[in-house]
Amino acid sequence: MKKTILITGSTDGIGKLTAIKLAKEGHEVFIHGRNAEKLETVISEIKSISNNEAIKGFTADLSTIASVKKLAETIKNEIPKIDILINNAGVYKSKLTNNQNGLDLRFVVNYLAPYVLTNELISIVNSKVINLSSAAQAPVSLDALVGKNAISEQVAYAQSKLALTMWSFYLAKKQSKVNIIAVNPGSLLNTNMVKEAFGTHWSSVDKGADILCELATDDRHENATGVYFDNDKGTYGNAHSDAYDEDKIEKLIEQTEHILANL
According to the model, what pLDDT value does residue 194 have? Predict the structure, then answer.
């Protein structure tokens, strides 16, 4: 059955390849990128490769929450319903450490942006939200989250991915309308982000794109929610232990809401 699918961070890497694969299957695919010119180029490329004209896109810089909220409003004005939202956009290395609000870019793009976007769009999402986690997960420093403590990009990345996973489990329990899956698409896949960060890779980007397509459309995952799929192992598994600590999750959500209320 044809689905309407929105993928953030999809002009490159895993997101782009996932969009291509889903477009080839005949789905209506909405992609997202920071650069309008690149976005249009990728839309044309996907249409040509997939022979599917139902490809559109949105431009937004996810490093600012104001931009994320504007993106959400634009999406709601243009799309009556979304079957599947894939929060794929992420950052590891960047020229700037913090955004204009003094928050670490990794926390903003990897955690706060999908948090805000999903909550803004949840009313029009019908089926599933897939959040891109990582094998790299580290206990979240609430001081680092609010920008009080500076931490390395590697640590910030790992903390942001655990924060995303903790919130995924929280959201799955909070509502039953939409299924929520956190997924490690695979470690050190051959993407530009990985090349910039590590200079090497372990697996093809297809590994990540294939599991995202499977989680999005395969009936075997239809009822999965509040779970973590570890694609390094090829099965559902356990995330970091903090992702199951209700007290830590509650404190994370409280701090998150405090941050967003004061931006």
Answer: 46
Radius of gyration of the chain (CA): 17
Q: What CA–CA distance (Å, rounded) separates 156 from 237?
A: 23
Torsion of CA 22, 58, 121, 82, to 10 degrees: -30
Domain count across the chain: 1
pTM over 0.90: yes
Buried b (16+ CB within 10 A) or exposed e, 56-85: ebbbbbbbbbebbbebbeebeeebeebbbb
Distance CA 185, CA 215 (A): 11
Mean pLDDT, the chain, integer: 93
Q: 43: domain range? A: 4-261
User: If you average pLDDT over residues 220-246, what whole number do you get?
Assistant: 97
Q: Two tokens at 182?
A: 């956190």
Contact 94, 143 (CB under 8 A): no
**What's the pLDDT score for residue 120?**
98
Give residues with Cβ within 8 angstroms of 153, minimum separation 6: 92, 93, 94, 97, 106
Average pLDDT of the segment spanning 65-89: 97
Question: In whole angstroms, what is the distance from residue 184 CA to residue 31 CA?
Answer: 20
Q: What is the CATH number of the domain that holds 55?
A: 3.40.50.720
Report yes or no: 87 and 133 within 8 Å, Cβ to Cβ: no
- Of the pLDDT bands very low, low, confident and very high (cuts 50, 70, 90), residue 86 is very high
Antiparallel, parallel or unpaired: β 55-59 and 28-33: parallel
How many alpha carbons fall within 13 Å on the CB side of residue 22? 34
Tokens of 92: 């590891």
